[in-house]
Specification:
Elements (H helix, E strand, L loop, with lengths): L1 H10 L2 E12 L2 H12 L8 E7 L2 E14 L12 E8 L1 H10 L9 E3 L2 E7 L5 E7 L2 H6 L6
Parallel strand pairs: 1-3, 4-7
Antiparallel strand pairs: 1-4, 2-3, 5-6, 6-7
Length: about 150
């Protein structure tokens, strides 16, 4: 019986962690360089990927993306907030259906990429939120520099 409960928990539509922190910056390149020089972040053109281990599968590496965006970027629209959070989720399709049934504003269709599925929603205070069902091993296979 415990096995069934454990399996259900792995497919329950929900947030499982933070997938990224995105914020506006007057000069994203300068901001990335400052964080690299002063705080030791490994940066690339998008920001920095933080590497961590999955608590339930310690052999699995997971990632969190930190990214400064140019102040006039449209990526956060329709939100007018200065930041956006990306949440790691499981069972994104069922989660979107749940959110729709509760009247949550879904901004786009679920998009699939090699590294996971994405959709954007608005929270109750007008912040755009990015939901991501990750495929982490793609980043591991890429073997890019990460902040650890």
């Amino acid at each position: 019986m415990m096995k069934d409960a454990s399996k259900a928990n792995k497919t329950q539509p929900k947030v499982t962690g933070i997938g990224g922190i995105f914020f506006f910056s007057e000069n994203p390149e300068q901001t990335r360089n400052w964080y690299a020089e002063h705080l030791g972040l490994e940066v690339n053109q998008w920001g920095s990927s933080f590497e961590f281990r999955n608590a339930h599968k310690p052999e699995e590496i997971n990632y969190l993306q930190w990214s400064p965006f140019k102040n006039d970027s449209d990526y956060f629209k329709p939100s007018e907030k200065e930041f956006m959070i990306n949440y790691r989720v499981q069972n994104i399709e069922a989660l979107v259906e749940q959110l729709k049934s509760k009247g949550v504003s879904i901004l786009d269709d679920i998009e699939s990429f090699d590294y996971g599925k994405f959709v954007h929603i608005m929270d109750g205070e007008g912040r755009k939120i990015e939901l991501w069902e990750p495929i982490d091993y793609i980043f591991t296979e890429m073997e890019g520099k990460t902040t650890k």
